[in-house]
Design a protein that fits this description.
heterodimer, A: alpha+beta, four-stranded antiparallel beta sheet, globular, B: 134 residues, mainly alpha, Non-ribosomal Peptide Synthetase Peptidyl Carrier Protein, Chain A, 0% strand, EC 2.7.8.7 (chain A), 4-PPantetheinyl_Trfase_dom_sf (chain A), 4-PPantetheinyl_Trfase_dom (chain A), holo-[acyl-carrier-protein] synthase activity (chain A)
């Protein structure tokens, strides 16, 4: 039971100067969200929350209030506090982040509606209003109990996947890979003599494959993992089995190590190329956040290390 | 304000509104599934049961608990959703692999993706095992 979501009086003490507080003790609403600029067409925004850093029961309570009833039910459907908390933070992150882009001047995280496209991928359902042309905002969420992340672009289909670096499979890696990955990927893993490194390579491969399928947005049954190979020798590329000679150029990847503890894989639909079809690097802005409390720009710091793909951090 | 569930454990009987099995899967990072429950064939009078349903559900529950490192006394029933128990997409695939080994069956990837609850898994297993048993 999410015991700390019992109704309690609010008592915030926001320490961060980024947010203007009238008083340390809040008994009413959350402060307004600070707006942020939409990503340009070439940019990718990565937002993340570290659940362990969000400890305030009143704050979590307020997050819950942002959600429509069916999302609250969904959060409470998870078994145990930790799972419920990361589920809550995932919904809060996506709602507050999209709201902050101020697409529609009075966008309230509460009023955002989500729908699914014909393939089942979640999308924002913008209000239909005269003269309002919804922006081609794309987003994707991923979370583990220790990290909640949301990637946002303008126009580029995006898929992200996060995983703890030290995640271990219960099954033997090679047995698992032989069952679910492609022959090339099995070979790649098999060639790694150190078991610790092999485990990490496996997790990297897993997150990249997940990110690809999530970016495609057509569901996992349309792209089973053994029908495409992720090649990560020089740069990262995907090769589908039905056209092996034709490295699928539509998709580009980034693999990041976050806070030294997590892998984050990002897959993007390629928008433009440089001269002679050469891919331009992914322009990434990464921010760690606690919604309504603080943001920290972390791209270009030790917190976000590019370990695969061509990425420029801003 | 959402009322916290009165019971200590999340009520397994309170299912989310239709459509949320898929939303639940997406939110937790688990694979999208487009069918909430894999269609089970109509009862066949010539059905040979190679595995009784409660036993199958029990075995599935045991494998799930092992994969998710849940204490053995954790209540896991047919209604239990993998995602709600904390299974992400990697866990789900590992669970399916464990089921394949336990029951000596082979689960197609698209069937695997449609498994949302313990009962779904048990039903699928029984169907595959029956095919094998004749």
């Amino acid at each position: 039971m999410l015991s700390f979501l019992r109704r309690s009086y609010l008592n915030f003490s926001f320490m961060n100067p980024h947010y203007c507080c009238l008083s340390r003790n809040f008994s009413a609403a959350l402060p307004p969200l600070l707006p942020v600029q939409l990503p340009s067409r070439m940019e990718t925004h990565l937002w993340y929350v570290v659940p362990d850093e969000v400890k305030s029961a009143p704050l979590l309570s307020k997050y819950m209030e942002l959600l429509p009833q069916y999302e609250r039910d969904h959060v409470l459907g998870f078994r145990g506090d930790q799972l419920q908390k990361s589920a809550l933070l995932a919904r809060t992150l996506v709602r507050t982040t999209i709201a902050r882009y101020q697409v529609d001047d009075h966008l309230d995280p509460r009023s955002l509606r989500f729908k699914r496209n014909i393939h089942g991928k979640p999308e924002v359902e913008w209000e239909t209003k005269d003269g309002f042309c919804p922006p081609p905002l794309q987003f994707n969420i991923s979370h583990t109990s220790s990290l909640v992340a949301c990637g946002v672009t303008m126009n580029s289909l995006i898929g992200i996947d996060v995983e703890e670096k030290r995640r271990r499979t219960k099954n033997n890696i090679l047995a698992f890979a032989k069952r679910y990955f492609t022959a090339h990927e099995v070979e790649h893993l098999n060639a790694i003599p150190d078991s610790e490194l092999q485990q990490q390579e496996f997790i990297k491969l897993w997150t990249l494959k997940e990110a690809y399928v999530k970016a495609l947005g057509k569901g996992f049954s349309s792209s089973p993992f053994n029908t495409f190979t992720i090649r990560a020798s020089s740069g990262i590329a995907v090769e589908t089995l039905d056209s092996p000679q034709n490295l699928t150029n539509n998709w580009q990847f980034a693999l990041l190590e976050l806070m030294g503890s997590h892998y984050v894989a990002i897959c993007l639909e390629r928008q433009e190329t440089g001269g002679a079809g050469k891919a331009l690097p992914i322009k990434l802005t990464a921010r760690k956040t606690i919604p309504f409390v603080e943001d920290e720009l972390v791209s270009g710091t030790n917190a976000v290390v590019t370990i695969g793909g061509s990425v420029t951090q801003f | 304000m959402a009322a916290a569930s009165a019971s200590s454990f999340t009520s397994l009987k309170s299912r989310p509104a239709p459509g949320l099995a898929t939303i639940a899967a997406v939110k937790s990072g688990a694979p999208l599934s487009f069918s909430f429950r894999r269609p089970v064939p109509a009862v066949s009078r010539l059905r040979i049961s190679c595995a009784a349903k409660p036993e199958t559900v029990e075995k599935v529950a045991k494998i799930v608990k092992k994969q998710l490192a849940l204490p053995t006394e954790t209540p896991v029933t047919g209604d239990s959703k993998f995602a709600a128990l904390g299974a992400d997409s990697l866990d789900t695939v590992e669970i399916v692999m464990g089921l394949e080994e336990e029951f000596d069956i082979s689960v197609e990837e698209d069937s695997a993706q449609s498994i949302a609850t313990v009962q779904d898994a048990a039903d699928l297993i029984e169907e595959l095992v029956q095919k094998k048993c004749g």
